[in-house]
Amino acid sequence: MRILFSCRPAYGHLYPLVPLARAARDAGHDVVFATGPAFLDEVRALGFEVHPAGMSIGEAEAEAYHRHGRDDVFRVMITMFADLLPRATVADLTRLLPVIRPDLVIYEQSDVGAAKAARDAGLPAVSHVIGRSLPPEAQQAAAAELAWLWDGTPADLLMGDVAIDLWPDVVRDPVVAALPTVLRQRPVAVDLDVAMPRVPTDRPLVYLTLGTVSFGATEVVRAAIDGLARLPVNVLVALGPGDPAVLGDVPDSVRVAGFVPQAEVLRRADLVVHHGGTGTVLGTLAAGLPQVLLPQGADQFVNAAALVDAGAAAQLVGQDVTAEAVTEVAGRLLGDPAVHEVATAAAAQIARMPEPAVVVEQLTALVRAS
Hints:
alpha/beta, 6-stranded parallel beta sheet, 7-stranded parallel beta sheet, 370 residues, 45% helix
C-alpha cells in the first residue's frame, strides 16, 4: 500500500503516529507524511517523505483571536478547529492526493480536514486517536460550523471510518470503545536522540514536564519545583524547547534539562508530574507510575479527569497549583498503594495490546476487503 499520514505540525500530534508509520514502512509499504511547513524538517529527520499541508495551531489561533477578540474563547476554538485548520488542510490535500495517490489516509484525531479530503477522494480515512472524544454538548454547540465537513450527513470526523485506539481499558474512552471498527494498538514511545541527564539514584526520582506546548507556564513549573524540593526526592525537569535560565536558581535536588529521552526517564522515575498531554499520560501508564496532572489547555483537562476518575492520578488546576499543594499531593501519591495498583493494572493492559506491526496487518486486510 501507499499510506498517507497527516498531522498538525506539533510534537504531540506527530509523534503518536510515528510507531505505526515505522511499522508500515518495515512491512514494505510506501509511507508519506503531510503536515504544516514548520515541521517538514522534523518529519524528514525521522526518515519519511513529507509534503506541506495545512497551517499551524499558532497561526490559526492568531487569526481566530483577530476575528473574535480574546473574550469569546469558545468561538475562538470553534473558528480554529472547525474552520481555519480543516479548511487549510482540505485545500492542500485536495491538490496533493491526486499526486501522491495513496490507498489509505491515516490522520491524527484532531486533523479532521484530512478525513474530509480523504472521503471526498473516495479513500478510507483512519483516525489515529491521540486524545479523548469531543463532549456531546460541544459537538452540538459546534454543529453548524462543522456541517461543511459532513456533506449533509452528521458524522464524528474525530473517529474516521476506522479508529486506532491507544488507551488501555482502565481509562478507555467509552465513545471510542463503542465505534463499529476499532483497532487497538499499544502506545509506543518515540524517544529523541538526546542524552539522559545525570540524576542521582540515592532517592526516588520525580519527573516534571509541561510538554512542548505548555512549557512556557513558568509560574506553574516554578511552583511544582518548589513543592517537590520539600520532599526527600530527586527531581528531573524537562522544558523541551524552553530556556532553563527562565527558572532562575533551583534547589540542589533539582536538575533542569531541555529535551530528554522520556521513555528512559520513565523507566527510572517513581512519580510523574506533568501537563496531561496524551503522550506523557500513556507513557506514564505504560511504566506503571502514579501521576500528578497540572492541565494547562486543549484535551489535558479531559485526560486529567479520566485518570482521576479511574484512580490513577491526582490533579491540581489553576490557582490550586501552589508549592504547598504540590508537596502534599506528590508526597501522598508516592506512598499511595491504591494509585500504584491502578497504574500497575494499566501497565499490564498496555503490555497486552497489539503492537503497531499487527495493526498494519489489520489495516492491510481492511483496505483489500474494501
